[in-house]
Specification:
Length: 451
């Protein structure tokens, strides 16, 4: 992180390409003076805070670049907590590039990716979980993702964390009271209050952890890979799930040579479907490369669908493929089940779904199986979350359980208090109250320029 307090930053805040409106955003101590110069200098009427002004935008030699709306937000009542000015012109890439260059020539610095949101965090306008929710909302690919990200941006996740954190600090104060007055008998009531508090907080953190895990799954989406022998109907199943002719389907083994990708929605979760080359001894170099890619992508799958042909039953080649699959969730898919009266026996310990990609029979059952396997059954969760949030909550819960175990056996009070401090610190990492320095650069570097 390289945050310089005196810098004024500038960026194009709208997506690349042509559009009806294009926005150049300035933030920092010189934002107003630079924007005023761009709008004609002292000859122009002063900008009124939070008022839409029609202005022409000029180069330093007086040429008009564009005209549009100028909005002025004085510090600290702005997105970043600094003085912010937005120049809203036409969505011309050339005009926007000219405005950006003029702002830089007048003393602004080109913003880094995510620097506006980074400054909002550093100036107390957003906590870290809310700042991450901004990126989640921008990158949302489904209504469920957008709703969850908006809830986090509004503070649903942060408020839950802060509420537990306050209770934890109160419990820590009780535990430390026993240290401060160790020579006095505070009584059974004091120890029972600590025991009850540990139990209650453990339940609350566990519940929040489940919600965060659901929110993290929703935020990152899912990846499902189809695997199996040639000609078992993987491409037909891909087309049936995608509801369009995405993959070429023929009776010729080895038709699919490369990875084919489609995205579908399952219970609000964006799921990337990947069709792969049939796994067998390759017939040529091109097919060999496709098979190598298929085996590689299997290791990144959240769920593998091993497709088998119900009309011929479980084959020795199917067994070899099953044995070589990486560890993780998987389903046996008995395709072409419309050709038999009943699906063949499934290998022991495996979960199977019988269907026909040709007729569509059994696809609803597959959808439900996918939802359960990807952990998206029931509510999608009240907010978006990240893997680091889940890890912080896991750490907090572990420390609470340690404190509870120590307290229940009359352990050293100092160790109980230390575990409570660690639990509180882990919670504080979620919203960036402590230990944020090491992760800020990683988090904000994934934002788009201008946000």
């Amino acid at each position: 992180m390289d945050y310089q307090q005196g810098d004024t930053i500038v960026a194009i805040a709208t997506p690349p390409g042509e559009g009806g409106v294009g926005i150049v955003r300035l933030s920092g101590p010189r934002a107003l003076s630079i924007a005023t110069a761009l709008c004609g200098g002292s000859a122009a009427e002063p900008l009124t805070p939070r008022y839409a002004h029609f202005r022409r935008f000029y180069t330093r030699d007086g040429r008009v670049i564009d005209h549009g709306i100028t909005l002025y937000f004085p510090a600290p009542h702005s997105y970043t907590g600094e003085t912010v000015v937005e120049l809203q012109g036409h969505g011309s890439p050339l005009a926007l590039a000219s405005l950006l260059a003029e702002a830089i020539a007048r003393g602004a610095r080109a913003a880094r990716a995510g620097e506006f949101s980074e400054r909002a965090f550093l100036n107390g306008r957003l906590d870290l979980a809310q700042a991450e929710a901004v990126a989640d909302l921008i990158h949302a690919r489904s209504d469920a993702q957008a709703r969850a990200a908006a809830a986090s941006l509004e503070g649903a996740f942060s408020q839950a964390v802060d509420g537990i954190h306050r209770q934890l600090l109160h419990l820590l104060a009780l535990a430390e009271a026993g240290l401060d007055f160790s020579e006095e008998d505070l009584g059974d009531t004091h120890e029972q209050a600590i025991a009850d508090g540990l139990t209650q907080l453990g339940r609350q953190v566990a519940r929040l952890l489940r919600q965060a895990e659901q929110g993290a799954r929703l935020a990152r989406g899912g990846r499902v890979v189809l695997a199996g022998r040639p000609n078992v109907g993987k491409s037909s199943l891909m087309n049936a799930l995608a509801r369009r002719e995405s993959a070429i389907v023929t009776a010729i083994p080895g038709t699919t040579r490369d990875l084919l990708r489609e995205e579908i929605l399952l219970n609000g979760l964006p799921v990337e479907l990947i069709d792969t080359a049939g796994l067998r001894q390759a017939g040529d170099a091109v097919e060999a490369e496709g098979i190598a890619r298929a085996r590689h992508i299997l290791h990144s799958a959240q769920l593998i669908l091993l497709v088998a042909d119900a009309s011929v039953g479980w084959q020795a080649e199917d067994e070899v493929i099953l044995r070589d699959l990486p560890e993780g969730p998987r389903r046996i898919i008995w395709n072409k089940s419309d050709l038999v009266s009943a699906p063949p026996p499934t290998p022991a310990g495996e979960v199977a779904v019988a269907l026909s990609a040709q007729t569509g029979a059994g696809l609803d059952a597959l959808h439900q199986s996918l939802i359960e396997a990807l952990g998206m059954h029931g509510d999608n969760g009240p907010f978006s979350a990240r893997r680091r949030h889940v890890e912080a909550l896991e750490d907090s819960l572990d420390q609470l359980n340690t404190a509870k175990d120590l307290h229940s056996v009359g352990g050293v009070p100092e160790l109980v208090a230390q575990s409570l401090r660690e639990a509180a610190g882990a919670l504080a990492r979620v919203t960036g109250q402590i230990d944020a320095e090491d992760i800020l650069g990683e988090i904000f570097s994934r934002f788009c320029i201008g946000k």
